[in-house]
Amino acid sequence: MPELLSLLANLHRPRLLIRAARFGTEDYVRKHALPRLLQTGSAPTPQDAISKLMVLEDVQNERRRDGDASYSINTHIELLIAMMCEARLLRPRQDAS
Predict the structure, then answer these.
(1) What is the 3-state secondary structure (H, E, C) of 18-63?
(2) CA–CA dist 82, 89 (Å, integer)
(3) What's residue 94's pLDDT?
(4) Residues of the chain by 3-state class (helix, strand, coil), percent to 5
(5) Phi and psi of 6, rounded to 5°?
C-alpha cells in the first residue's frame, strides 16, 4: 500500500487539472462514481480502486499529451477526483498500523 500512495504522490499533472480535481472532491460519492468510472457493478476496495483508476488516468493523460481527439477533460478530472478521495481512505488505515 505505501508504494501505491508513493506512486500517487509522484504524479505530475498540470496545476489546473489538480486544482479542478481538488474542488470536485467535496462532491465525491464513492458508491456512484466508482462503478461508473470502473464500469463495475459495485465499488471495489480503495486499494483495488486506486490501481484501476491509475491505469485509466494514465490513458487519459497520454491522450491529453498526444492531443488525441478522444481525450475528455471531464473524465480526466473525474478520475483524478476519485484517485484523491480513494487515497484519503487508505491513509487512516496505514497510519493506524
Answers:
(1) HHHHHHHHHHCCHHHHHHHHHCCCCCCCHHHHHHHHHHHHHHHHHH
(2) 11
(3) 46
(4) 75, 0, 25
(5) -65, -45
Distance, in Å, from the CA atom of 49 to the CA atom of 34, rounded to the nearest integer, reads 8
The pLDDT tens digits for 21-60 are 999 999 999 999 999 999 999 889 999 999 999 999 999 9
pLDDT value, residue 9: 75
Residue 77's nearest CA partner among 8, 18, 7 is 18
Write out the three cell numbers for 18.
Answer: 489538480
Q: Which three cell numbers stand for residue 17?
A: 487539472
